[in-house]
Amino acid sequence: MYRNVEKKSFNLKTLLEILLISTRLGLTSFGGPAAHLGYFRNEYIEKRKWLDDRSYADLVALCQFLPGPASSQVGIAIGMLRGGILGGVISWIGFTLPSVAALVLFAYFYQTFHLDGAGWIHGLKIVAVAVVAQAVVGMGQKLTPDLPRITIAVISAIFLLVWPTAFGQIVLIIASGIAGVILYKKAETPDVPSLHVSISRKIGLTAWGLFFSLLIILPLLRQVIENELFALFDIFYRVGSIVFGGGHVVLPLLEREVVPTSLISAEAFLAGYGAAQAVPGPLFTFAAYLGAMINSWQGALIAVLAIFFPSFLLIIGALPFWNTVRSHPRVQSALLGVNAAVVGILLAALYNPVFTSAVKTPVDFSLALAAFTLLVYWKLPPWAVVLAAAGAGSLFL
């Protein structure tokens, strides 16, 4: 019998258990969102039997549907099922804190030693090309298996390259969902398993209300509140609220918010993104690096809290209603179109800003090609390829 799904009383021992397990995962979960889900299944389902496989699969489906970092949201949701909302918070802290600390330290190191022209920093920028290309290939194979979805992905990439704005991405996601409903309205829909949750629908509706209220109010208040930390909260909350597809897809949105406004240079942005590949845990902790570069540790704290806060609100709001919603055929059809658009968004990001900012010479392209080969065909872990690229950058660039 599985031990927690509807557990009502939570104690300090339970919360400490969640913290210890999630911290261990935060220290060892290399390889990106797909790998994280594998680590979670091994730890929470195989070893500890906190959920059964069907409930876990249902939870993953929910988090794939919502905007935000899917693997982090799965960890938050499991924490909530095990230890209530506080359990979700503790699970998030354990999983994200190691990579947040590492990236803040890297930001201080970058600024202290003025690394803009360093060869190993350029190597980090180049390895980002390989990592994003690998994500495009992997996600494309799973999310665009037929001609209509390939077409949606290509049109999405062209659209974002021509109209590279955050608002454009929102329009694109909505249009792709509509296309999915039209193209796949007659597709067979599978039976969905039931997920037992203890969060009431009243709390869920409150969370949804707060989510949308902040999304509307923060940009308005920013016009009258001239404070850099408030502006950072608005930027990162908004990005965390509208990113579909997880970690890598956050890259173009963040770049368009902080680079054109001169909050951070394009070179420093990509150097941090490359460094983020070398640490375990969620890629959304890249926000900690950006916040630290912009406004020291206070900026890092605000950026991390802001970019993950929508995930908490969305999980709390969605869990009580997900069984009903995801069984609806039109929702499943829309999701097919949205997932195809995600591939296109990532493809556009691969060209601009990743490729155009990092690859300037034949040597740059050669290093990117070698890193891609090591990732895709040699199956080396991303952190090892990042370290190898940084070393090669020191020697040859």
Automatic annotation (TrEMBL):
One of its GO terms (cellular component) is plasma membrane. Its main location: membrane. The keyword Transmembrane helix applies. Pfam families: Chromate_transp. It is a multi-pass membrane protein. Keywords: Cell membrane, Membrane, Transmembrane, Transmembrane helix. It comes from the Bacteria. This is Chromate transporter.
